[in-house]
């Protein structure tokens, strides 16, 4: 079969997206099958786990299109699809004002802000951590970092479908809007005077900002943050990767409630 997205007219509608990977699509079939418009696969019913997923898609009357491994790689822009890609209905993104309206009257709220996270694997891992720790949303700039690509969705293991997603044009402006909405914004960066995350008294509405190991957090966002936090290291390695750091901070918040 030819690549179903070989020409411009066959590409996804602007708001639709591809989810790839066996685990991510299994979670989607399990929890939100109505969002799936079509499954593309090179798998067969003879492969037990993959076959079970295909049987469940057939039971739910989700259209299945057989294609080659090469075509799936072209569609997804990655060879990490594990023989599956799903065309799903596009989901909406909120802006900060819409998010604040959504949680109006909610005393506690936890957010994760991603600054300059250009690696889709890291972005997906951050979405997964945020979902696992019950964050109310993830905020990122469409101009400074990875977007919600198939690779990011796969790395999130389904979290990209359950999280409230807040995509903004200017993350520094989003920080100011959140502060006006009662959030204390905490930047995860080691600076003179940064506070120990293990001992920090978190406020009910907290927003953590994390940045990539290479680019870090923009100086303007560091300046606008209410405090900078660091995570004490006790081993020989000096730092965690961004997903590990975010998980640690989210844990500190939950333990401090």
Specify the CATH architecture of the largest domain: 3-Layer(aba) Sandwich
Number of strands: 11
Specify the CATH homologous superfamily of the largest domain.
SPOUT methyltransferase, trefoil knot domain
Mean pLDDT reading: 87
The SSE order reads: EHEHEHEHEHEHHEHEEEHEH
Given the structure, what is the number of helices? 10
Shape: elongated
The profile of the biggest β sheet is: 7 strands, parallel
Helix content: 25-40%
Determine the strand fraction and express it as a percent band.
15-25%
How many distinct folded domains?
2
Q: Which class of secondary structure composition applies to the elements? A: alpha/beta
Rounded to the nearest angstrom, the radius of gyration is 20 Å
- Strand arrangement in the largest pleated sheet: 7-6-5-10-8-11-9
As residue ranges, the low-confidence spans are 1-11
User: What is the terminal separation in angstroms?
Assistant: 55 Å
CATH topology of the largest domain: Alpha/beta knot
CATH class of the largest domain: Alpha Beta
């Amino acid at each position: 079969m030819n690549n179903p997205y070989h020409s411009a007219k066959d590409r996804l509608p602007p708001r639709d997206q591809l989810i790839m990977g066996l685990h991510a699509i299994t979670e989607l079939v399990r929890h939100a099958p109505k969002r799936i418009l079509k499954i593309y696969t090179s798998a067969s019913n003879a492969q037990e786990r993959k076959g079970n997923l295909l049987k469940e898609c057939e039971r739910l009357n989700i259209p299945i299109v057989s294609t080659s491994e090469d075509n799936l790689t072209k569609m997804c822009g990655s060879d990490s699809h594990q023989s599956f890609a799903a065309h799903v209905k596009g989901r909406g993104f909120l802006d900060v004002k819409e998010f604040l309206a959504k949680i109006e009257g909610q005393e506690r709220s936890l957010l994760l802000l991603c600054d300059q996270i250009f690696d889709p694997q890291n972005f997906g891992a951050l979405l997964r951590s945020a979902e696992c720790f019950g964050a109310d949303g993830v905020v990122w700039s469409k101009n400074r970092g990875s977007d919600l690509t198939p690779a990011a969705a796969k790395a999130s293991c389904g979290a990209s479908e359950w999280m409230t997603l807040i995509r903004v044009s200017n993350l520094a402006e989003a920080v100011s809007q959140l502060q006006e909405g009662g959030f204390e914004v905490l930047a995860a960066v080691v600076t003179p005077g940064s506070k120990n995350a293990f001992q920090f008294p978190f406020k009910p509405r907290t927003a953590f900002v994390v940045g990539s190991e290479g680019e870090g957090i923009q100086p303007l966002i560091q300046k606008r943050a209410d405090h900078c936090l660091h995570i004490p290291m006790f081993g020989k390695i000096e730092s965690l990767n961004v997903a590990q750091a975010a998980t640690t901070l989210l844990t500190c918040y939950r333990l401090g409630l």
